[in-house]
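cache lookup: miss for this entity combination. No prior model stored, computing from scratch. Input as submitted by user K.M.:
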Amino acid sequence: MMQGITSEAFILGCSAIGAGLAMIAGIGPGIGQGNAAGKAAEAVGRQPEAANEITRTLLLGDAVAETTGIYGLVIAIILLFVRPLLTAYLNL
Amino acid sequence: MKIEIYMKLFGKEIFVPDTIVNTFIVGILLTIFAIAANIKFKNADKTKGPEGFQNFVEVVVELVSGLTRMIMGEEMFYFMPYIGTLVLYLLVANLFGLLGFTPPTSDYSVTFTLALMTFSLVEFYRAKTKGFVGFFKSFTEPLPLLTPLNVIDEFANPISLSFRLFGNVLSGVIIMSLVYNALGYFAPIVTPFMHAYFDVFSGVLQTFIFAMLTMIFITNVVD
């Protein structure tokens, strides 16, 4: 027990910091989707008649590339709203 | 609008959150839609062209069957009813946020159930096409050493499929509730654009991707 701060508040604050750190995972999909969109723009420039096919492939690939970012988001949401660490502390 | 149910059953308190209630509302709406479409098509006048409601249903069916035919090919076209069910359900569920309800897909139990349905279908067709021995043998390819990785890979599919849909819809719900709470009465100035992106664009895209990945998984297994 620190002075002037309860253990519960400390755990909640650390959970919030952890949620913020988890969202760093958003960098990866950002770079990946940017790369994919750039390549798709190049492909449309080279072959404008295949634009529909390229858009479909791009959206599907983006969705799959997004998965790691979504994992980070889900962990952040769980830390903030489900608060497993606080529950674990209260059950000690 | 938020409808929640508290029940007392056999001395236990049961809490049904609004997402589950909305799931049933979507189910009832789709059932009414199906019955109405059925009646309409039975009484259709074959001498005239389609019009109104019948046109709309035909467009939906043609879109889904065209997509299925393109990805899965003519010989596996019999999966079209399942894909059509997924598309209709997810489309209505994701667009439900526009009416002020919580979208059912922002509950993990709903998306995980849908992913589990696809997972069981994929495993069933793997067993059906490869036989009992071939089912277990397919995990040892290309090397027996890779069996644990193959098994983990197989179980990762439903998890990533469900978390993708869940994360996309829930992030939209959370961001929009933050904006609604922050701006109060002035919220309607910005929220229409956010609804257009998070509900309409993201919802339709995730529906398309869920159906697409389901078809790709099944096609990979059967080939």
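stored under new cache key. Strands of chain B lie at 5-9, 12-16.
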